[in-house]
Amino acid sequence: MKKESVKKFFSNKTTKTVLVLLAALILLFAVYKVFFPAKKKTGAYVPTEQEERLSNILSRIDGVSDATVMIGEEEGVAVSAVIVFSGADSILTRIRVIDAASGALGLKKENIRVYPAEK
Q: Second label for 79, Cα 20 to 30 Å away, from 20, 29, 37, 66?
C-alpha cells in the first residue's frame, strides 16, 4: 500500500516540477557560495575600552575633532601608542595630544606617534 502511494506521489507532474525546481534552487545556492564567498573583513580592529576612553578624551582637546588610538602592549603593559586625529594639524595640537596620551598611559613621549587623518 505504501509503495503505491509513493509511486502515485512521484508520478504527479506538479510534484516532479516542484522537486526539480527545489533541486535547481539548492544547486544555484551552492554555486553562489562557491564562486561568490562572503567578503571577510581583513584588518578590522576592535578598539579596547582603554583606547576608546583615551580617544574620547583626546577628541575634547582644542583643535582635535576626532581621535583614534591604538595602544601597543607587551605582557599587558602599554609600551607605545599611535594616534590619528582629525582637526587642526599644528605643532601645538600635536604637543597637546602627546602630553595627554603620555599622562593617561604613563608612557614616555617618544613612544607616542601622532598623525593627522587624511582629509
A: 66
